Amino acid sequence: MPASGLQGGLAAVAGWTPGDPARRYIGTMKTFQTLQDLAACVGQEVAVSDWTTITQQQVNQFAEATGDHQWIHVDVEKAKAGPFGGPIAHGFLTLSLVPQFFSSTFKVVEAAMGVNYGLNKVRFIAPVPVGSRLRARMKLLSADPIDNHGFQMAWEVTIEREGAAKPVCVAESLARMY
Questions:
Q1: Which of 122, 129, 121 is nearest to 164 (CA)?
Q2: Where are the alpha helices (DSSP H) in the chain?
Q3: Is the pLDDT of residue 10 over 80?
């Protein structure tokens, strides 16, 4: 299928499998040539990250960095008798994985940089037991041109726990890319 037959800017995405109705891609990293190519994907799920495992060491380090030493996160023995049967990750630890999920799933060749512009909405829907495997689905909600040839993009980021029926976190993340 010629590239011109692909819809929604997919012609500029390296790794897309032409003719695949599910629009699966080959490999774990999508490559867009320009910001305009990425912006053409508004309304679409652009990427799904690989799974990453949450460890007790990560939880402890996050507690040290933030000062949040609540026992449900860091006291393994006490947490075993708690409401979740073991320690759980901080919600903000889960949220802090968003940059990792983005950087591991796609790149824009002609972009010089991207910056976090904030969040519109965040919900921690379900706990993340230590040892869980998480991944994120990123859907591009909007891409608006801004100064210096950039775009402000709003993303729906849905973080899933392997084997769970519902996501653990859903966030609307804002980024500016130049």
A1: 129
A2: 35-39, 56-66, 71-74, 76-80, 91-96, 98-103
A3: no
Are 117 and 41 contacting, i.e. CB atoms less than 8 angstroms apart? no
Distance CA 127, CA 40 (A): 35
Supply 87's token pair. 């320690």
**Integer Cα distance of 76 and 69 in angstroms:** 12
Pick the CATH number of 42-103+113-177 from 3.90.650.10, 3.40.50.720, 3.10.129.10, 2.160.20.80: 3.10.129.10
Beta-strand pair 30-32/133-146: unpaired
> What is the biggest distance separating any 2 CA atoms in the chain, rounded to whole angstroms?
60
Give SS3 for 28.
Answer: coil
Query: What is the tens place of the pLDDT at every residue in 57-108?
Result: 999 999 999 999 999 999 999 999 999 999 999 999 999 999 999 999 999 9
Q: Which amino acid is at 38?
A: L
Question: Which pLDDT tens digit goes with each residue over 140-149?
Answer: 999 999 999 9
- For the entire predicted model, the pTM comes to 0.83
Reduce the DSSP state of residue 56 to 3 states and report it.
helix
pLDDT band for position 18 (cuts 50, 70, 90): very low
